[in-house]
Design a protein that fits this description.
Blueprint: E1 2-8, H1 21-28, E2 32-38, E3 51-52, E4 62-63, H2 65-73, E5 82-91, H3 94-102, E6 105-109, H4 118-123, E7 127-130, H5 140-151, E8 184-185, E9 188-189, H6 199-217, H7 219-238
Parallel strand pairs: 1-2, 1-6, 5-6, 5-7
Antiparallel strand pairs: 3-4, 8-9
Helix pairs in contact: 3-5, 6-7
This protein binds S-adenosyl-L-homocysteine.
């Protein structure tokens, strides 16, 4: 079973939002699982502290390598990659979510304060992963986002009604706009083509919309789409 193990100073935050809706149901059905390790349990002092002042001076506190290593070594690895949530990490993407969802899960270290002693990353061959170009106060919300992105891709987690193949980022395009009832909302109509019943025209319109939205909002993605769009698109269908 796919499983995430999360090392954190705040285990009480989990599973939190991950137990709602489809992910919660899927966990009850044992399609995936998670557990937490409380880093404080590996503290070497009566105060339960796990951090200390930065070598070389400066503000803040750094999480200690020895304590984190002990916490990490207490977790059964089972071939899972060890990730450290960090704004300096490699950007997490939908592609990575697909890859991780097909594996056995992952072990994730959530930082707090100024982050972790760099020697830990090296000593345990940890990969740094970022969820975006902004700075959070801790890795907990970041790892929840990663777990959610991976778990919804595990077969059986989403109902068959929800199609994965045509979503944003699949095939390097953002999704086309969606509409539902009522037909008229504050003087705005649903585009005629969507009510035409002509599946070919609908598909063509959606592709054009997706291309236009991607071109204007995400020129970086659009460039990639132009370079290898058709190939990726057919690959996605095989997933
Ligand atoms: N001083 C660090 C930031 C520390 S933020 C720096 O400038 O790089 C505290 C913790 O929040 C980090 O250790 C990390 O685990 C988490 N975090 C913050 N921003 C993140 C992001 N964009 N992606 C993933 N984790 C993040």
């Amino acid at each position: 079973m796919w499983k995430a193990s999360v090392l954190t100073l705040y285990p009480e935050l989990f599973p939190g939002p991950l137990d709602a809706s489809v992910l919660g149901r899927a966990r009850a059905e044992r399609l995936w699982d998670m557990d937490t390790v409380n880093i404080k349990d590996f503290s070497d002092n009566p105060y339960g502290s796990v951090d200390d002042t930065p070598a070389g001076g400066g503000a803040g506190l750094v999480m200690r390598a020895d304590i984190l290593a002990n916490a990490l070594d207490s977790v059964e690895r089972k071939d899972r990659p060890v990730l450290y949530l960090s704004p300096r990490g490699k950007p997490f993407t939908q592609k990575r979510a697909h890859k991780l969802s097909r594996g056995p899960g992952f072990i994730a270290l959530c930082g707090r304060f100024e982050g972790v002693d760099a020697r830990l990353i090296e000593a345990r061959q940890i990969e740094e992963v970022s969820i975006g170009d902004f700075v959070l106060a801790g890795g907990e919300i970041a790892v929840m986002a990663m777990i959610e992105a991976c778990v919804r891709l595990i077969p059986g987690v989403l109902g068959s009604a929800q199609s994965l193949g045509v979503e944003s980022f699949e095939g390097d395009l953002l999704e086309y706009p969606q509409y539902t009832k009522p037909r008229m909302f504050e003087n705005k109509q649903i585009p005629d083509v969507l009510l035409s019943g002509d599946h070919g025209r609908v598909a063509k319109w959606r592709l054009e919309q997706a291309e236009e939205i991607t071109r204007t909002r995400r020129p970086d993605l659009y460039q990639r789409y132009l370079e290898n769009g058709p190939i990726r698109r057919s690959k996605n269908k095989e997933r």
